[in-house]
Amino acid sequence: MATPETLAAQSNDGSFKELWDELKWRGLVAITTDEDELRKALNETQVTYYIGFDPTAPSLHLGNLVQLLIMRRLQLAGHKPLALIGGSTGLVGDPRPTAERTLNTKETVADWVERLGAQASRFLSFEGAAAAELVNNLDWTAPLSAIDFLRDIGKYFRVGTMLSKDAVSARLNSEHGISYTEFSYQILQGYDFLELFRRYNCTMQMGGSDQWGNLTSGTDLIRKAEGKSVHALATPLITNSDGKKFGKSEGNAVWLDSELTSPYAFYQFWLNVEDADVIDRLKVFTFLTRAEIEELAQQTADAPYLRAAQKRLALEVTSLVHSRSAAEAAIAASAALFGQGELADLDSATLIAALRELPNATAPLGTAITQLLVDTGLVDSISAGRRAIKEGGIYLNNQKIEDESAEWHDLLHDSCAVLRRGKKTLAGLFKA
What we know:
alpha/beta
């Protein structure tokens, strides 16, 4: 969890003449409504801006972290953030590229609103002249009748324009089509911007580039309803060098909640970033300076096998999202699992989380080591297990197994053990 000390240590890079130059260098600008005017506003005035997070899951994920960190960078430059948790839009859901979303119950969404609000709050400061505020769009949509919504807001939207939005047109051309519920989402998001403009003088909305159609719904609505020009800024969608969407690990989102993605798994995710991607990740997800990142880029070019950039990236982002101590525990666990530290010194939660990430098996004490090697997939057969032991390559809790008939009795934290073949092939054991 980010602490006041963590926030106090953060700063933008003073080597850039303007905030906008740093945002561009970090690759955080995909498209804006008017770049010159927005740049001028960020240089000359305090801009109140917002990003919306819909509670469609019990936790934020890495895509949301991109937005949280750009919010923080603008706040450090003196601008005022509004973190909007979509208590109403979360009940509807923005259109996905293919099928209709499953609608969650009001009780579930309300619970997720609380969770996401608490998560988002950890990345912003709620003190000082640029103090952040947490807002919920249910506050202004709940009292609004359907007739008032259609008369006062719906009249500004043209169906032709709404149909041309990428998210809508993709669904119209799919076999699933699109419901009126999801079709109306862009009106709700546009109305959010209008209400924040009226209530807080909010003049900029940010989001991912896949949300551009929804972002401009708000700027268009404010122009029509209030006769004012406001800004939208979209960040690029983060992809890997192979073109795949970033933030997926074996088909699952990487969550910011430690109960859904453990700090150990989170650390390992960053540690495994490819050389081709690691410098871009450092720019987006850390507060390291340009000089520090360029030095790490040089180290990666000169000695990629040392993985200096990945190690620094994993340390920085895990510390930011969880804590420095959680990052250090993940580092200690990695070392101990591979025989370079004391397994017994690891706390139970970190060790168990690490073992859950490995191939693992549950078995009673007294099970033959050869059987456990087969159960965890470290060998293909009992006879192969015997050969591996005979060759001196099997370790239980970092102790070499020398007896081919050995059984499992050695526990860590009275619940688990680490089985290793050679230097790098690991598995977890859990007591039945």
